[in-house]
Specification:
It is built from 16 helices and ten strands. It is an alpha+beta fold.
């Protein structure tokens, strides 16, 4: 073992005359540990939120959507068959999209009306798993039944079995002018995605009823696809552009919600930078520790130089001493951060019970439990950045130690 490593480890373990140096070393180590712990936990929670919201969004929208020009697609069966030739596509379902207004008593609300085939729709999205009343399969052709979101039902005061009026913007031309189409529907189901955009503004009816209401004939608005791997959506979209013929618009879930997911990614990046400042401050606290150590060990440095130690060897000694602080701090942070992130669903309820407080109230937030998704890439990146910062912090004090003049250091010894 090289003498630089031996001396550096001895300086780390030795009891110094100045206990203040030891205190700063421990404070720097704990600061790095706390910063690494906070980074791992916060990024895991943000990943959990992103995963949870993405799952709820994809419970309503499809992975890939194919639409026709002017919101009309006549030969949707052929389009679905050709799209299903892609090995990533596992299911396809037609849909009709339209705008409308729901009216119950004096309450009126604008909604997105979606016509679906329940037997095919349940293979594409998971909205049937989020029913709080009734069943999605209750939609039947010609029965004019409707399934609405929980917030929409609350606003209208609607319950299963109530009759509500759907007003479509496509009007009927009469001698008295254009009269909007009105049709009475029976509420047979209420769903709750816990995503306000859909809970308060989406209504589902049968595909055949939507075709009649909006004058579509046998045409539909498009086809929705489900993929084996939702992260392959962009590649599948490019393949469908080459595979399908005709004037079609193809979009995937990353494009339809691009602004949201871009905002989440930016927020995650900024949070990483902000919390990294904790590690940065703690790492550079070790600068003062090493500067004082250099001052305290000037006589030792001078003796080593007179025995033939090179300036590079002196630099290595104090780099080892500073690196030990960063290495132990990073290890403690990772060792505490990973268990915390993996058990956040147990820790948070315990703290809520202990402090008698509710962190995520159901009256305010749609996600009432703190989710966590620990990703190995984040842990590796945090560990490497912490070690690099700790190493960089040792360079200046080590360089100062190498510039100590042996004659000056030993003059008064």
């Amino acid at each position: 073992m090289q003498y630089e490593l031996l001396v550096g480890l001895r300086y780390t373990r030795a009891k110094r005359r100045n206990h203040f140096i030891s205190f700063i070393s421990i404070a720097s180590m704990l600061g790095i540990a706390v910063g690494v712990w906070a980074l791992i936990v916060v990024l895991s929670v943000m990943n959990g939120f992103q995963k949870e919201v993405r799952a709820r969004i994809l419970g309503v929208i499809a992975h890939v959507q194919i639409s026709g020009p002017d919101n009309r697609l006549a030969d949707w069966q052929e389009v679905a068959r050709e799209a299903s030739a892609n090995p990533q596509v596992t299911a396809a379902a037609p849909f009709v999209n339209g705008q409308g207004m729901l009216m119950l008593g004096s309450s009126v609300r604008g909604v997105l009306v979606r016509g679906i085939a329940p037997e095919l729709e349940q293979n594409v999205v998971e909205i049937g798993l989020h029913m709080v009343a009734g069943k999605l399969g209750s939609l039947a052709p010609g029965e004019f039944r409707i399934v609405i979101g929980s917030e929409l039902a609350r606003y209208l005061g609607a319950r299963v079995g109530d009759k509500i009026t759907l007003i479509a913007p496509q009007g009927l031309v009469t001698p008295a002018g254009i009269v909007p189409r009105l049709k009475q529907f029976t509420v047979t189901g209420i769903f709750r995605i816990d995503y306000n955009e859909y809970d308060s503004g989406l209504a589902l009816i049968h595909l055949a009823d939507a075709q009649k209401l909006y004058g579509m004939g046998d045409a539909v608005s498009g086809v929705r696809l489900k993929l084996k791997d939702l992260f392959q959506a962009r590649e599948v979209t490019r393949d469908l552009f080459a595979r399908l013929k005709g004037d079609l618009y193809i979009s995937d879930w990353t494009r339809s919600n691009a602004n949201y997911f871009r905002a989440v990614q930016i927020e995650k990046t900024m949070m990483f930078i902000i919390l990294l400042l904790i590690v940065l401050v703690a790492a550079f606290n070790s600068v003062s520790t090493l500067v004082m150590a250099v001052t305290d060990k000037q006589a030792d440095i001078a003796i080593l130089r007179t025995l033939g130690a090179s300036p590079g060897g002196i630099i290595k000694i104090f780099i080892v001493q500073g690196a030990i602080i960063g290495l132990l701090g990073t290890f403690l942070g990772v060792a505490s951060g990973i268990p915390t992130a993996l058990n956040i669903d147990v820790i948070v309820p315990f703290l809520e019970k202990l402090l008698s407080v509710r962190f995520l109230s159901s009256e305010v937030y749609y996600i009432t439990e703190l989710p966590s998704d620990l990703q190995s890439a984040d842990v590796i990146a945090i560990t490497l950045v912490s070690l690099v910062l700790s190493f960089v912090a040792t360079l200046y004090p080590s360089w100062r130690a190498a510039r100590v003049n042996p004659a000056e250091a030993l003059r008064y010894e």
